[in-house]
Amino acid sequence: MADEEKEVEASAEQPKKKSPIILIVVLVIVGLVLAVGISTFVMKQMMADANEEDFDENKHHDPGIFLKLGDPKEGILVNVGGPRAGKYLKAGIVLEMNPSKKSVVNEETKTFNPDAEIRVMDITTQFLRTIPIEDFDAQKQAELKKQLKESLNAELGNGAVYDIYITSFLLQ
Q: Count of domains in the chain?
């Protein structure tokens, strides 16, 4: 009995040796799981970036039709800052329109359809009139153009306006 107790104590003192094959298999499985997880994450990020690019019409599109808003020489004249501010904005705004939007642009004459021109002028005028005077700062011009483009596309249909160009800008 004493010998058996010594064997039990000796076996308890010695750590059990694990098979190196099992350890290798576990490491390979963990490595594969990590590789699949990382690959999935990277692919989701790439797909999300690709989807965002699909919505950006400025990347790749057919040549647009450039149309100036308002008077061909003068552009748009708008009372800004509220009725009592006494401030006026005279701006030359050119829209790059999607030629495939037949409800907005007459491709043969390269002009707005009459009803679309009225809607574009109304949206643009209302948009400019509601902007606080502080937001007409030159540093905020890109944001204003983006907001105006979103407003026009919401009314005319997504992708109707490719881009907006401001050719003159006078706030008085």
A: 2
Helix axes 114-130, 141-156, angle to 10 degrees: 140
The whole-angstrom separation of Cα 80 and Cα 91 is 12
Residues 48-89 have pLDDT tens digits of 766 555 555 455 677 888 888 888 888 898 888 777 778 888
Q: Are 75 and 69 in contact (CB under 8 A)?
A: yes
23 touches 31 (CB < 8 A): no
Same domain, 108 and 131: yes
Assess whether 22 and 70 both reside in one domain.
no
Neighbouring-strand partners of residue 163 = 96
Alpha-carbon gap, residue 152 to 109, rounded angstroms: 21
**What domain range includes position 140?**
65-171
pLDDT in tens, 85-129: 788 889 999 989 888 888 888 878 888 888 888 898 899 999 988
As a whole number of Å, the end-to-end CA separation of the chain is 109
